[in-house]
Amino acid sequence: MTAKVRAACVIGWPIEHSRSPLIHNYWLKTYGIAGAYRREAVPAAEFAGFIHSLAARGYVGANVTVPHKEAALALTQPDDRARAVGAANTLWFDGGLRSTNTDVEGFLANLDTAAPHWDRELPQAVVLGAGGGAQAVVYGLLSRNVGRIVVVNRTYSRAESLRRRFGDRVEPAHWHDLDAALAEAGLLVNATTLGMTHQPQLAIDIGRLRDHAIVADLVYVPLATPLLCAAAARRLRTADGLGMLLHQAVGGFALWFGRRPEVTPQLRQLLEADLEPSTPGRTGIT
Ligand code: NAP
Questions:
Q1: Pocket-testing residue among 113, 218, 238, ligand 1, by greatest number of atoms within 8 A of Cβ
Q2: Which of 20, 99, 153, 253 has the CA that lies 20 to 30 A from 200?
Q3: What is the pLDDT of residues 64-81, one digit of tens each?
Q4: Are 216 and 188 in contact (CB under 8 A)?
Q5: What is the chain's Cα-based Rg?
Q6: Is the peptide bond before 67 cis (omega within 30 degrees of 0)?
Q7: H or E element: which one contains 127?
Q8: 53 in ligand 1 pocket by Cβ < 6 Å?
Q9: Is any atom of ligand 1 closer than 6 Å to the C-beta of 271?
Q10: Pocket of ligand 1 contains residue 218 by CB under 6 Å
Q11: Annotated catalytic, 69?
Q12: Nearest protein Cα to ligand 1, atom 36
């Protein structure tokens, strides 16, 4: 590493699956920036030490992924967004080591692109899940003034904790209440791991949704989840997990390398080919 090359990394355990290097190195090449972006496999017990030596290792910042997002919050100076969500995924130096959560803007920018004006007159949304992804989604929906957010989660107490964190516009619910909530929802978001390759299917009757409803899925392996396929078959507007992944990367790149990058159809195709090399003919951003 030379002093002239700015470098960032993604820190996780395991980390081989991360697509972030593909995204950031594509942008570095596209914009002709002399930089580097690497994977760093760091187990939980070594995370604090790694963070404290981040600058000494030559890094100007980092992404943080599973299982370190909560620990990253505690070890950095988080902005209001990361503190509210309870997790940080993007770190950079500005005086001290600062952090934010770009899953929020990734979720919102993806919906803005895939379903423009989705947030006009949206009295109710349903969010499936109450983990880290769901928290970013709920924060984002509240910031766009969605009236009521029904959080449906297998472990009800985790849905209740989202109400405590975000306030009484969040309504915890059990799975057996889902059908009634769907009938009133303008937006459905899957923020569970259900529907992922090697995970159980998401058993849900989207026939309950209204004709103008929008369906978003955070899962991006497979790209076209059964939920998104069912929504498309009903001609509902959809936003997929890959779009969110691409948009959440924008903020970190801008902070580290000084240029706000674009999420283009070419970048998306690169990721599609990596995620599903055998899927022919998939097109650009929806
Ligand atoms: P997490 O914190 O581990 O939360 C997992 C959620 O899935 C919890 O609500 C959990 O419910 C639920 N769940 C897991 N197995 C279940 C089952 N068998 N039945 C019912 N519910 C089940 O994970 P996360 O970080 O929020 O990630 C969730 C998904 O979002 C993952 O697929 C991840 O890849 C994706 N994600 C994508 C992006 C993106 O940029 N596209 C960003 C963030 C996350 P319990 O609380 O009951 O365990």
A1: 218
A2: 20
A3: 999 999 999 999 999 999
A4: yes
A5: 19
A6: yes
A7: strand 124-128
A8: no
A9: no
A10: yes
A11: yes
A12: 218
Residues counted in the chain:
286
pLDDT bin (cut points 50, 70, 90) of residue 188 is: very high
Q: What backbone torsions phi and psi does residue 184 show, to the nearest 5 degrees? A: -105, 0
Q: What is the DSSP string of 36-77?
A: EEEEEE--HHHHHHHHHTTTTTTEEEEEE-TT-HHHHHHHSE
Say if CB 169 and CB 149 are below 8 A apart.
Answer: yes
User: How would you classify the pairing of strands 90-94 and 96-100?
Assistant: antiparallel
pTM: predicted TM-score of the whole model, two decimal places:
0.94
Summarize pLDDT for 127-156 with one digit per residue, the tens.
Answer: 999 999 999 999 999 999 999 999 999 999
Query: If you search the block for the tokens 């290097």, which residue do you land on?
Result: 21
Write out the two tokens for 1: 């590493």
Residue with tokens 């959080």: 151
Backbone angles phi, psi at 92, to 5 degrees: -155, 160
